[in-house]
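User: Modeling request: complex.
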Amino acid sequence: MPISLDDPKKLKPLASQAHQVAMNMLRPISRKYDRAEHAYPTELDMLASMIDGLSESGASEGAGAAGVRRDEKPEEKQEGTKNGANLASVMSIAEMCWGDVGLLLSMPRQGLGNSAIASVANDEQSERFAGVWAGMAITEPGVGSDSANIKTTAVLDGDEYVINGEKIYVTSGDRADHIVVWATLDRELGRAAIKSFVVAKGTPGMRVERLEHKLGIRASDTAAIIFEDCRVPKENLLGSPEIDTKQGFAGAMATFDNTRPLVASMAVGCAKAALDLTRDLLTQAGVEIDYDRPAHVQSAAAAKYLQMEADWEGARLLMMQAAWMADNREPNSLEASMAKAKAGRVGSDITLSCVELCGSVGYSEGELLEKWARDSKILDIFEGTQQIQQLIIARRILGLSSAELK
Amino acid sequence: MDIGKSLMTRLSPGGRHGLASSEQRDPIGYAVAALNKLAQSDLLDRVGLRKQAEQVVFTSTREGFRTVTAASRQFKKAGGKGAGTRAPAAPRKGVFDLTPTEDEQMLVDVVSEYAEEVVRPAAAEANEACETPEGVLKAGLEIGLPILGVPEALGGISEERSAMAGTLVAEALSRGDMGIALAALGPGSVATALGLWGTEAQQQTYLPAFTEDAAPAAALALQEPTVLFDVLKPSTTARKTAEGYVLDGTKAGVVRGAEAELFVVGAALEGKPVLFLVESSTAGLTVEAEPSMGVRAASLATLRLEGVTVPTDAVLGATDGSTYTECVRLSRLAWCALAVGTGQAVLDYVTPYVKTREAFGEPIAHRQSVAFMVANIAIELQAMRLLTYKAAGRAAAGQEFTREVALARKLCAEKGMAIGNDGVQLLGGHGFVKEHPVERWYRDLRAVGVMEGAVLV
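Assistant: Request completed. Predicted assembly structure:
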C-alpha cells in the first residue's frame, strides 16, 4: 500500500454528514448560546439521539467521544492498514467543531468522561456505563497541570469508596448524569495511587457548587463540584484497583493518549471555521490567494493566509497520524502530544490572526470570528496545556525522566 | 546633468558592499575609505609588504571568473516522432496510510546507508571545496540515483510515477548532507524531467547517457538573480525563429553548472514560461562560479545565455506554461524533502548534545528552555514531513497537488529555517564554529524557500 495522507475514502460520507449537522444545526444557534451562558441548548437532545442511532447502526464507525475504545481482544490479522474509529472520531469532531466547539462539548453522552470510560473501563464496566453522559473531573483549586498531585481522596470502606475533595473546571459538570473523578487511594504512594471513579449524579455527598463564567465555549457548562463523604460502589473504580508503582501513572494517563487527538481535532475544526470565513471575506475584499506564485509577490494578507493554512494542514495531519496509529494499535503518546501541541497553538494563532485580518468586521459580534478566537483558547489549555505537551514530547525525544526534566 | 550630483553619485558608497543606496559618508568615512583602498593596492605587494596572493584559478569557491560551459558529449539524435514513454500513476486505495511500500523502504534503506557512510563523512570538506568529491558521486551512480525517476522501459528503475520514492530518497540523502544531495540528485532531476515530458526523440537522444557508468552532470536551471523573483515569470526570454529559438538571460544557483553537459532552462516564450533543453556545447553559454551561503557542495553557478540558438525540438513539454508549472511544483516538493532530511539531521545531532553538555552542574537538557526547543523541532519537523508526504502521495497518484505542495513549501521554508537557527543556538558558541555541522545546516536550510528548480522528484 503506498503512502497516502488523503482523507480515507470510506470516512468521507461520515465527515460530510457531520459537516451538514454543524452547518445546519450548530451554526444557527452558535451566537445564541454564546450570549446565553449556562442556558441548556435543548436543540442538542434531538441531535444526540441521532448520533446514538448512528453509533448503534454502526454507520458512523463510532464517531464521537466514545469511539476511542481500544479493543483488547486480538483481532484477526488483516491485510494492510486500518482506518477505524479513531480516525472517524477526529474527523467528525473536527467537522462538528467547525460548527461550534462549545456546543460539541455540550453534546449529551459525548463527554470527555465518556472517552475515559472507553479508554480504561473493563468489559463489565463498559456495558454497565453504556449510554451514560460522563463529565471529567481532574483539576482542583490548587492542582492543574501537576495532576499527579491531586488531593481528592478515595478510601475503601466495605464495598464502597468514600470520596472527599473539591474539583473545578468540570466540563458538562452540571448537565452530565455521571462524573469520572480522579482521586488518590494513598497520597503517600504518589501517582500510582491515582484512580478514576464513576460517580452517578444524585449520589449523596456530591454537589455542584457553581458554574464558571468564561472567555469562550460559553455554551458548555463548566462546574465546580464538591465531594463530601461521597460513597460509590467499589466496582465503579475504572481499571485495576491495584497500586502498581512500576506502572505508575500509566493507567490514568492512557486516557490522554485517546483524548488529546480529540482536543487537537477541536482546535483543527475551530481554526478551519475561521480560515473558511476569512478566505471568503478576503476574496470579497479583492485579495487573491495563489498557491503557485511566491508569497512575497502576493499581498501581505495572502502571504499571512498561506502561512496559516500551512500551519493548519500540519496540525491536521499530526492529528490524523495520532488517530491512525491508535487505529492500528501502535503506541501514540508522543504523536498525540505533538498533535495537541501543534493544533492548540495554531488554533489560537489562526483564529486571532483572522480577527486581525478582518479588522473590526472580525472583532465585532456581527461575525463569529471574534467568538472563535475566544473559543479556541481553551483548546491550548485543557487536557494538558501547551507547556505540558512540550514537556511530554521533550522527555520522550530526549529519553529523560520526570525527575530529570522537571 | 548636474555635475555636482553626478560626482556625489560616484563617490557615494551606496549600492556596493551590501550598503543600501541611500548610505552617505561623512569626512571620517572618506578617510577610512581611502586608507582601505591603499591597503588593497598592488603597491604593498610590489614592495613586499604583504604575502603574495594565491594564483587565481578557476574554482567554484570564488566568484567573478567566467568561462564557457563544459564541452558536452555527443548526444546522438535518435528516436521517432512519438510522444515518449511515461510511467503510469501509482495506484490509489483511498486509505490513509503512512507505511512506505516494500520497494520504497528498501530504497530508503540503501540510500540512508549511503548518506550515513559516504555522504556525511565527505560533507565538511565538500563544503570547503565547493565541490562534491567524484568518489561520492560515483557511489551515488552505483545505487542508481540518476535513473530513479526514469521509467523501466527506458532503462530506468521506476515502475510507476516516482514522486513518492523520489521524496523519500531526497529526504534520506539530505539527512547526510543537503549540498551533496543536490549535487547527486541534479542529473537525475533532468532525467526525471525527460521521463515525464520528453518526446520519444528527446528520451532516445538523452536518456541512454544517464544509464551509463559515466552519467553526465545535468542541471535544471529555473532560478534567476532577481530580487522578489517570481519563478513563473522568468526574465530569460525565448524568441521563435525560422530554425528554432534564441534564448537570452541569466540563470542563478545552477547545480554543478561548470560541469553540466545538459541544461533544462526556463524561459518566457510569448509570455508563457517554457522549458528548453540546451546542450552545454551550444554557442553563447557562459558559466560563472556562484558560491553562496550554503549548499556549497553543489558547486552553484550562474549560467548566462547570450543569443543561444536551439533547434525547434529543444522545447521540453508544452508551450502553454503547464509543463513548466508542474516542473516548478515537483521541484518545490524535492526541496521540501531536502528540508525534512536536514531538519532530521539537526534533531539527531542536538539530541545527544544537550544531554551531555553540562552547565550549572547538570545536562542542559534538564532545563525546559532547552528541552522545549528540542520538542518544538520535533513537532514542526514531523508536520513538515507529513505535509511533504501528502503532496508527494498525490503527485505520485497523478492527482492535483498544487495546494498541498504550496503549503508544504511554506511550512518547510519557515520551520526548516527555524530548526536550523535553533540547531546552532542549542550548541551556543560551539554551534558557531565549524567543528560541528550545525552551522552548515543553518546555511543550507536558508536555501529552502529561496531556491527554485535544481532538483525535482
